Structure formats: structure tokens, C-alpha cells
Amino acid sequence: MDTTTLASDWQAALAAEFSAPYFTALTEFVAAERTAHPGAVFPAEDEVLNALKLTALADVKVFILGQDPYPTRGHAHGLAFSVQPTVKPLPASLRNIAKELESDLGLPKPTSGSLIPWAKQGVLLLNTVLTVREGEANSHQKRGWEKFTDAVIRAVSDASAERVVFILWGKPAQKKEALIDARKHTILKSAHPSPLSASTGFFGSRPFSQANAALKAAGRTEIDWSFR
Questions:
Q1: Which residues pair with 133 in a beta bridge?
Q2: Is the pTM of this model over 0.85?
Q3: Pair type for strands 132-133 and 41-42
Q4: Average pLDDT of 16-45?
Q5: Could you say which of 68, 104, 158, 224 is catalytic?
Q6: Would residue 68 show up in a list of annotated catalytic residues for this protein?
């Protein structure tokens, strides 16, 4: 994984992680997985850190935390909940996000599942685990990614002088709340958009309008939540 392509503020904030023994072991594990399972470790090597490439630390306004990449070939591209623009039909969680967007903000159903337009506006879309083996959800858990992404959460919480809205969907994401300075930032919590839990608290939670209200109150530009 090439960390030199990240914005300079991420490189500075995460320098200790990139040089730590656990990160070396992690990169060696992922490389071994790619060798053992050719073409079946997602996302592609040059897309693993896409969330940090597309949204500089200084630009983060909203932080949406996912779990691990979609384990379906051709779906994951390094942004939590997002898929490649050509993917049809959309994964169930993303379809539920689109339904809540329609209910919350009246936005039409998207024609693409790519959330790159969000990332370019300052929405950091980070999974807690950044790689996965095809067809095996959570197959790269507990290999070091969690330690790294915890460091990213802390960096955003600590380094951001302005308010950031952290959106924590589901219990795994909500366990990260302790890493966030709630005196400085806004934390929105609800059920996960997965079909297993969306009807028990995700639908009707209105996270997008709430996030924009918090940004507006802090004098920050709101997010255009449409995606095409």
C-alpha cells in the first residue's frame, strides 16, 4: 500500500502508525493474502486507502464509519458503503441508505452507488477494516486494521478545529464513540442500514438532515447528499 499518495496532513497525522511494527505486519499479511488468493482480495491494492486519498484530514466535515468492504467481486473500491459506479443492483445496505435519503431529504433514487461525490465534499467514508477476502465477510478482522482506523478516528477528533459530524450506524461503530471528543463534535447514532436492522431504528433516523443542521449551526457548508 502506497501511503505517499495521501494528503500531507494525513501523512503527518498517521506517520507513527505507518512506521509501527503492527502496520508492517498488516501490510505483509494483506500482501500474502493477495498472493494466496489472486484477484480475490478487495478492494484493489491502489484503492485500499481511497477514503483518505479522496478526503484530506483538513476537509473532513462528516465521518461515516462502516465495518469492512463488500466481499463481492467488483463492488468495493475503498469507501465505506460505496460501490463501483457500474454495480447493479445496489447492495441492500446502500439501497436502504437511498431510501432514508428519499424520506429524509426528498432525494430521488440514485442511478449509481458510487459515493465519491460525498467524499469530495468532505464526507470521510471509512471502514474499520479496509480489506476482505472474496465471499468471506470479516475475514481480515483482528489483523491490525482496527488499530489503524482507531488512529484515524482519533486524528479527526483531535486535529479538527471545526465541528465534525460523526455518524455511527450499528453497535460496532458505536463502540468507537469513546475515541471521539463529544465536547467538540456532533455524534449521531442509530441502527445499521443492513436489512437485518434497518427497520429497528435506521429508517426514520434522519441522519442526513441532522448532519447538515449541525454543520450549518457551526458555520460550515452543508453536504449535498445526492449521489448519481
A1: 41, 136
A2: yes
A3: antiparallel
A4: 97
A5: 68
A6: yes
